[in-house]
Design brief:
about 525 residues; alpha+beta; six-stranded antiparallel beta sheet; two-stranded antiparallel ribbon; rod-shaped; disordered N terminus; disordered C terminus
Amino acid sequence: MKRLIPVILSFALGARAQELTLRDAVALALEKNADVAVERESYTIADATVLRAEAAYEPTLRGDARLRKRTDPANSILSGAPPGELAPTVKSLQTSASLVQLLPTGATVSVFSGLNRDSSNSILALLTPAWSTSLGAEVRQPLLQNRRIDPARRTIRIARLDRARSLSSQRRIAAEVTAATERAWWTVAAARQDVEIRQSSIRVAEKQREDTRIRIEAGTQAEADLAQTTAEVERRRGELAVARENLARAENALRNLIVRDAADPLWERELVTGSTTAAVAAPPSIHEAIATALQKRPELDELARRVARQDVEIESAVDRVRPQVDLVAAYNGRGLAGTQNEDAIQPFGPVVVPDELRGGLGRSLLTMGENEFPDASVGVSVVIPLGNTAARQDVAIARAIGRQQTAMLEAARQRVAMEVRNAIASLTSAAERIDAAHAAREAAAVQLQAERDRFEAGTSNTFFILTRQNDLVAAQVAEAVASADYRKAQTELARATGTLLDDRGVVLSETEGVSK
């Protein structure tokens, strides 16, 4: 049987001396996350539990050997005690071996053998020493209880379901970690663009101040306008300080997801995220997205496995209510041989030991092989618990828990459908905001240029120029934020539909490791 090997959630990060990519960040987050590590070990435990449960079908071999000497108190005139003794003494070597095999049908097959060597000073013993041998088999097949399910099959089915559920749990946590990392990544990207836009706006304001100074020196502009441009430069520097703080906080939040400890060099490393700009695509059909989510969301698979696990418990509980009726068939071949006891009394004339019984161990085995002393049986074993209240209440409890699990699954399905709808709404809204922000930025640029033209013509002033510059900065920031929100909405939709790991190339396979 193909077995799943615990997945190590790591990526080959490759060379990254110049830049930490989003792919690298996700890889580090998956490696570092404690929940991922815990679920990976949980899967290892679940896999070992399956193998442990399947060990129920391994045969059991048992052997016994002992030397025994006994003198039994006898209250009979036929005690067989030799003259002058109270009772006969028997010395024996007793050995036995058995092999027991459980079958997938619930049947138990037992093969057993025995070998005894007895020597006695009893005057009633015919053979001493005497060799007794036996070889037999028994088959016990349940007809009611334990026929369709028994403790071994219940344990195996539950262990396999737990193993599959553990793998789904790994996928769920991996998807959550990936989504959180991507959201943090695009937050950093938007914050960095905000800083760059603020820096550019300061340079524009400084140029405006310098132009104002030149115009004042030329006598074409009032000296009070210099204070206005200076105040605007300082105001924008304050906005830049706030933007830098937001960037630092965003980077720290991302680093917290991917670094292992406080000494990690990534705390000091610049995170180059690139632009948030994304190609806007039409959102998927809601019904198709929900159908995909109901099929691929790992938490739904987890809950479905729990429902299936409880179904096994219900089936097992119902089985325990049935009477235990077993068909039992057995056969035992026996052998006997030995040396005639010379001290045996012969009250009815000379005792002649048949040739078939004369000899040692070999002769005893031959008599067994010749089927001289067969012992065959077939029958039915019945156990009927009277009342059986405990088993009946176990059924009621198991069914109630099953209804709870089913209700939880249905509630989760509805929640997943709602998440998909919300994700599509967010994606649609973000796309519309990108279009609106892009149009607003272009319009703000046109208005700024027009205001500059009016300023050059002497029909405008510095206040309106600075105002139009601020409008353009606000439009640029809004466009960057809308693009980052669109990226986040894409991530959330992929998470909501259960396709995030597949879309990102994160593969939890039956072989050790993750490929991307």
